[in-house]
């Protein structure tokens, strides 16, 4: 089996809701990072075997296979195909898995994996909402679904609240974590730690989400998302716009094209979990990927777990005992934002570059996903 190497990783800045990237067509945002990836790696675009993008809301401006549309809009060869996938928030992390699997199997040598989402233009849940408005039916309204789960509320907000209750995570604990995420992200931006991975879009060169200088008193004054609940807007990931892509190469491609590997895909896992709690998947995913890899959590130098909600990360930490100094050291989605289909590739791009900056060897990426699933990926810096 061939190794699968990451030979390039680039992203846009993450724009905040209705911010500086909100007017950009999602296809143009995807095209922008594709051009940057080809320029930075020096690969002949015609040598790419496939382009795999994650996108959670493929409707409107994001419809009709945004991977293919972005590639063509970038002015790249028509001979290269593309496909768009949806594993909810883990879509572009799954794109990386599919790309690595294609390379490891020997069926392909160069695959682009990434994702894009402009939530300012295409809000979360747009596909279901538009379909229901048009009388096409509720995606969670089938006879089999109702027989198994009833008509109870099934969404990430409820799941995150249930997690906070089940693990008895206080609002104050979550607010402390959120403040830390913003401070870490702001410090990373000030130190220039993201500069190498970002391809500025026009004059937008910096992530827009972090708000340093918050206080416990300010967060304590926010209203809960649900009456009597523990979660507030500050404890949920930000609505965001962005795109990110990586180039996955085989050993043969590395030699033939003179590429410089940044990391190798060490181990991959994907699991299902309780669809009512919905967001606990990173807990079993961590166990699964560590078992497959032969590593323990103490061997991992850098961990990126998506901060969909503060409760998700803190429940995972209680179950795994992870050293929080190694977890999201540059901040997470509470501060940097969560452009759904792009986030998996954004986290991987950040982790690859940060391992090189710090000299760490192993990185672990985890992503909770709608419907009760999670991807886990371990990479090894080269």
TrEMBL record:
<dbReference type="GO" id="GO:0003985">
    <property type="term" value="F:acetyl-CoA C-acetyltransferase activity"/>
</dbReference>
<feature type="domain" description="Thiolase N-terminal">
    <location>
        <begin position="5"/>
        <end position="251"/>
    </location>
</feature>
<dbReference type="InterPro" id="IPR020617">
    <property type="entry name" value="Thiolase_C"/>
</dbReference>
<feature type="domain" description="Thiolase C-terminal">
    <location>
        <begin position="259"/>
        <end position="381"/>
    </location>
</feature>
<dbReference type="InterPro" id="IPR020616">
    <property type="entry name" value="Thiolase_N"/>
</dbReference>
<keyword id="KW-0012">Acyltransferase</keyword>
<dbReference type="Pfam" id="PF02803">
    <property type="entry name" value="Thiolase_C"/>
</dbReference>
<keyword id="KW-0808">Transferase</keyword>
<dbReference type="InterPro" id="IPR016039">
    <property type="entry name" value="Thiolase-like"/>
</dbReference>
<dbReference type="Pfam" id="PF00108">
    <property type="entry name" value="Thiolase_N"/>
</dbReference>
<protein>
    <submittedName>
        <fullName>Acetyl-CoA C-acetyltransferase</fullName>
        <ecNumber>2.3.1.9</ecNumber>
    </submittedName>
</protein>
<dbReference type="InterPro" id="IPR020613">
    <property type="entry name" value="Thiolase_CS"/>
</dbReference>
<dbReference type="InterPro" id="IPR002155">
    <property type="entry name" value="Thiolase"/>
</dbReference>
<comment type="similarity">
    <text>Belongs to the thiolase-like superfamily. Thiolase family.</text>
</comment>
């Amino acid at each position: 089996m061939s190794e699968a190497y990451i030979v390039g990783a680039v992203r846009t800045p993450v724009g905040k809701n209705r911010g500086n990237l909100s007017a950009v067509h999602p296809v143009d945002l995807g095209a922008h990072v594709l051009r940057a990836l080809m320029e930075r790696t020096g690969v002949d675009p015609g040598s790419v075997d496939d382009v795999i993008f994650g996108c959670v809301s493929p409707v409107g401006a994001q419809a009709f296979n945004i991977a293919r549309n972005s590639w063509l809009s970038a002015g790249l060869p028509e001979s290269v195909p593309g496909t768009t996938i949806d594993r909810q928030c883990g879509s572009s992390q799954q794109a990386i898995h599919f790309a690595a699997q294609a390379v490891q199997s020997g069926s392909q040598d160069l695959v682009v994996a990434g994702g894009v989402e402009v939530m300012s233009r295409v809000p979360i849940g747009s596909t279901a909402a538009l379909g229901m408005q048009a009388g096409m039916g509720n995606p969670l309204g089938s006879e089999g679904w109702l027989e198994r789960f009833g008509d109870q509320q099934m969404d990430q907000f409820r799941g995150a609240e249930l997690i906070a209750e089940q693990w008895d995570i206080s609002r104050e604990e979550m607010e402390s974590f959120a403040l830390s995420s913003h401070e870490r992200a702001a410090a990373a931006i000030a130190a220039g730690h993201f500069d190498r991975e970002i391809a500025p879009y026009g004059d937008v060169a910096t992530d827009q989400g972090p708000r340093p200088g918050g206080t416990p008193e300010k967060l304590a004054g926010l209203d809960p998302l649900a009456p009597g609940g523990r979660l507030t807007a500050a404890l949920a990931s930000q609505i965001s716009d962005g795109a990110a892509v990586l180039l996955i190469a085989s050993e043969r491609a590395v030699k033939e094209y003179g590429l410089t590997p940044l990391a190798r895909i060490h181990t991959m896992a994907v699991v299902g979990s309780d669809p009512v709690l919905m967001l606990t998947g990173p807990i079993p995913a961590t166990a699964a990927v560590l078992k497959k890899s032969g590593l323990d959590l103490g061997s991992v130098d850098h961990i990126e777990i998506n901060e969909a909600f503060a409760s998700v990360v803190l429940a995972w930490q209680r179950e795994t005992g992870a050293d929080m100094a190694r977890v999201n050291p540059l901040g997470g989605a509470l501060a940097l934002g969560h452009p759904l289909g792009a986030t998996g590739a954004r986290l991987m791009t950040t982790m690859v570059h940060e391992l090189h900056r710090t000299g760490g060897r192993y990185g672990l990426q985890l992503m909770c996903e709608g419907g009760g699933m999670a991807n886990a990926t371990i990479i090894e810096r080269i």
